[in-house]
Design brief:
By secondary structure, the chain is an alpha/beta fold. It has a domain of 263 residues: 3-Layer(aba) Sandwich (Rossmann fold), CATH 3.40.50. It is 40% helix and 16% strand. It is globular, with a radius of gyration of 20 Å. It starts with 6 loop residues before the first strand and ends in a 26-residue tail after the last helix.
Length: 400
Amino acid sequence: MIIQPRTRGFICLTAHPDGALQNVKNQIEYVKSKGAIKNGPKKVLVIGASTGFGLSSRIAAAFGSGAATIGVFFEKTASEGKMGTAGWYNSAAFEKEAHEAGLYAKSINGDAFSDEVKKQTIDLIQKDLGQVDLVVYSLASPRRTHPKTGVAHSSVLKPIGKSYTNKTVDFHTGVVSEVTIAPVENDEDISNTIAVMGGEDWKFWIEDMKAAGVLADGVKTVAYSYIGPELTFPIYRNGTIGQAKNDLEATVTVLNNLLKDLNGSSYVSVNKALVTQSSSAIPVVPLYISLLYKVMKAKGTHEGTIEQMQRLFAERLYREDGQIPLDDASRIRIDDWEMASDVQAEVDRLWQETTTENLSKISDIAGYRKEFFNLFGFEVDGIDYEKEANENVPIPSIAS
């Protein structure tokens, strides 16, 4: 079928398999161009492996360190006459490229919050790999059914205490407007958001894996977080999502104690603001990212997810000297270039000036749009979107 993008708000309803394959190939080539990650991981589990930072983590581990990888995700399958999701096509592309390179790669499609998928994953590790030496936790979901209580929790994106008003942009039309977001009405909104996006599920994974004996001596585990600039604090870091991120970061201490007898370690990496399906849904953030891209590209410091993950692995988690630099809250900071004082000062200046009329001149809104569509395999250089595409692309390890 001929596949074209169809959007509804910040969601693209279609995905292109050929564009996804090219995106994955581009990321692989970048990792290979940087050379081998010395002392890198060899057997890796990525939870939330089909898009964004999770997908790039899997690529960095496999093609930077020659690692065998297992990826867990929850995506809509492809079949004849019916498109899969972008994450399905990304994962199919990754397995294809990994297998052609002689690398072990298998995937599990299901609810990573569930005990069933945890057991299925552990069984696969025991059968094929024995143990893993890196566990990446990169889940991004708006809902979670708690595996112990059966209660369904939904996260909310709201400030706490008072309403928040600031500029935002419709990145499809380029219209800059003002948005006001009402605060949470009760503590239940906060606790539900923590239940979905906090550290409890990460802890459950590590507890179950340790009990099953599938964590190697010296194992590392890392989860991803974000802080961002003060202008987004009310809606992000000081809002409901920020409370969940605080809980995620606090889980590091719990996991370090749990992994002590394995000589293991746990980390949270604070990553750069990037165009993702999640970030596109947060008011204010798309405008901030558009301005940030303009500034960082001009300075030559812009990175995408693959540049971020390659640098995380090579210059932080697996540094040759073994010394992982942490901030005063014991976090890895891969947002260091974003949060540089000169970058933030310039973004602040542009923020004050931004209007609908000058948006295309002072921001990189065109780059934002392109990256948004790239997430779904569209607007990828070298792809002819007028040609028929095969929508029925299987993932070899889980194809029926």
